[in-house]
Write a structure and sequence with these properties.
globular; alpha+beta; about 140 residues; 3-stranded mixed β-sheet
Length: about 140
């Protein structure tokens, strides 16, 4: 449900009912993830150390579209870029802006280390796609 809310395929009405939004077809896939280096930003204890807050993590202000058009990053984009550049994080588990009880997993595909992988779950074997980490894992040395 969180994925559909985040993709704006579902929305809440004023009386709290969930409704589907008319839109072009989307492709929704289930991913199997084997990740070892996930920064869990659903844990409020980390916010102070990271210089952020729950409100900042789920805020749509400032607009990423406006800032990005001005070649600037939002605070959450800056945090994601810092995590990517650190080389120590493969994914960010972040609170969902659309579902207070849900979360999103932002996977930094280019940061996957040996032993980590992301693949499409398809028991019919029609879609075979997998990304395997290739960077040597500093912990395995």
């Amino acid at each position: 449900m969180t994925a559909l809310l985040e993709a704006e395929a579902l929305f809440s009405t004023a009386d709290g009912q969930l409704r589907g939004a008319p839109r072009d077809p989307d492709l929704i896939l289930t991913l199997e993830c084997d990740l070892q280096r996930v920064l869990d930003l659903t844990m409020p204890d980390l916010y102070l150390d990271l210089g952020t807050s729950y409100d900042e993590l789920v805020s749509a202000t400032p607009s990423r579209f406006i800032l990005n058009a001005r070649k600037k990053l939002t605070p959450t984009q800056q945090l994601g870029a810092a995590c990517f550049q650190s080389g120590a994080v493969s994914a960010l588990k972040v609170p969902s802006a659309q579902n207070r009880n849900g979360f999103c997993l932002d996977i930094l595909i280019e940061s996957l280390v040996v032993g980590e992988r992301v693949s499409i779950l398809d028991t019919s074997s029609r879609i075979k796609a997998e990304v395997n980490g290739w960077i040597p894992n500093p912990r395995s040395r």
